[in-house]
Design a protein that fits this description.
Length: 284
Amino acid sequence: MSAYFKLSAFGDEIADDLAEQLRILNQLNVGYLELRGAWGKNVLKLNDEEVTRVRQLCADAGIAVSGLGSPIGKSPLTDPIENEVANLHRMIEIARALGTTRTIRVFSFYPPNISTNAHYDQHIDEAVAKLKALADVAVAADVQLVLENEKGIVGDTVARCHTILTAVDSPAMRFAWDPANFIQVEDAKVTDRGWPLLGSHVGYVHIKDALLSDGSVTAAGEGDGQVPELLTQLRANGYQGFLALEPHLVVAGHSTGFSGPSGMTYAVEKLRQVMAETGCEEVR
């Protein structure tokens, strides 16, 4: 099976205004939007009228929504799962209203103490139970959840992500690989070590890189996240899906990031350079 890659981007890294996000994406010949925020609001907080406006603006721009960058699971492990189940039902409504995606990002919850991850293993069973509840909703609704690795979350390292995904064991939950987030929890040589464990789970890829020395975020190929090696593995294994640019080149925040038009332009250029060097075909 031949691999191909579609480029998407977190539009709120460009600007708050959705029309401006779409204008820049068209300039960059990026045909897909990762919808995390518009008009200063997270996608989960958009009302029905705003969702309709998103759909119309995207249609007018000729850009489809590739996935929803939801905050589900970026919540305390001690909170009732019913809260996130309700949020997931709303995200499913939004996905259906947009009509171009069934992919929803989720996370694996904040442990009570995030000052160190030395004790995170003891929280895996509880995180798995909550993620299984979300996956059951996703199966019934025929949507795809993609679990992102993230610092401060139970699923932060390669080993814990593998344990969680294996235990959830649902066709409705795949893995959203984020190289920079692994580096920021000091998982070195992450593709070399991580691909044998996580490669079969990958259903989505976020593109940002980072330096092991201080965790600072860089464009693809400029850090220690082994992005070229990751793309090589994806190509060799027939990956057919999205590379979603989440550059964080100006601001790398707790629940969002910002790069501006120039930062996003640079991030797209660097990714395309790495793709060319690794023989990865872009489909537009």
